[in-house]
Amino acid sequence: MPHQDYDFLYGRTTVTIPLPAEKILYDIKGGNLPAIADVPAAVRAALAAPVGTPPLRDIVRPGDKVAITVSDITRAWVQFHSFLPVLLDELNASGVPDEDITLIVALGAHRRNTGDEIALLCGETVCHRVKIIQHDAHDKENLVYVGATSRGVATYINKTVMAADKVILTGGIAFHLMAGFGGGRKGIMPGVSGYETIQGNHRYCLSAEIGQGLNPNCQSGRTAGNEMHEDMTEMAAMVAPAFLLHAVLTPEGRLGRFVAGHWYKAWEEGCRTVEQTYGVPIAEQADLVIASAGGYPKDINLYQSIKALDNAFMATKPGGAVICFLDCEDINEPPEYMEWLRYKDPLEFELAVRKRFTVPGYSAFRLKDMSKQVAIFGVTRPENFAVMREAGLRPVTGFAEAYDLARRIIGRDDYNITVMTQAANTVPLLG
């Protein structure tokens, strides 16, 4: 039987695996998005030809107080420092001086960023040009009630945002584990929302019925019928941002496209670019998916590896198997994620996440839930075995062992295989 070699990144190394060519159902790879050669020019072009709105110069007026939301340090990959100066210059040219602009670090429920982190995030020049504040989801004195969503979630928004004449959302668009896609309305919810509002929205990631675990509508690439997305979109509509400027990155992590304009329509346009670049249509799921997160740092720990495992899971038939190369050199990080893994009883775990929703808690719960539906083999270091077992994975030290065990679970000789060598970045879209 002829074989084909596939290279899987594993930590800081590469493992080459020969696989039977006739078994391969899909070799899932992302599309091509060229890097932008002249970032300032690309930003100016996006601002001048927006989607769904007039150009920014026709929206803002002299005397307007403008609030600009930026993501926190966990989204430094967006490279705000590369395009915020161009946006500020455009506002200045429209008659809005720097002193009438406030930049708000949209922390959501994340920790407060340090001064050095904000300088790294936004750039030193921006830090010296405009006032910068950090949202605090727990500071009720600086929250304003703006109404309730159709699902009854009370919506509290940052007071500075609501006091502004014009709100501009900046950020990056990528697939999102729960909300379908990141960016856009997430600049408002959870970005500048109150803690109870965030909790109320994020609970839609769980089934409406207690004891049923995850909500299957909340997954990468899905917005239609995704209750979390729909709820946060209603919240953003209450704020009615005046404009949006977002980036889409290339698979190599460089700026690939800017979209600007209406806070929802321009964001949708960016989502289409993400789908074209990172989404791969598939007609069926495979019996066995063999994957790599993409090496270090994407497989530095289980928390980071969840993106790859989730994408591999989406490509796998129920009752099938996943083999993923997971070096996890920092297996015990972050501490909060490790604390969530201590739950043994599924119902107790679910109730804990419902009571105090956090993304690490949800990710840990999601991983354990996936491991009950498909067998997940982690090719890893022996010292990682205990933690991986606690997370519901089946750790092994070598591919050959995992492959043999996976075939036993499948129990047929006519199995098929999908290969995902960049599973953290590529999302199988079952149609």
From TrEMBL:
Domain called LarA-like N-terminal: residue spans: 10-207
**Coiled coil feature spans:** none
Q: What is the lineage of its organism?
A: Bacteria, Bacillati, Bacillota, Negativicutes, Acetonemataceae
* Superkingdom field: Bacteria
The name this protein goes by in its record: Nickel-dependent lactate racemase
Species: Anaeroselena agilis
Gene3D superfamilies documented for this protein: 3.40.50.11440, 3.90.226.30
Domain named Lactate racemase C-terminal: which ranges?
A: 284-422
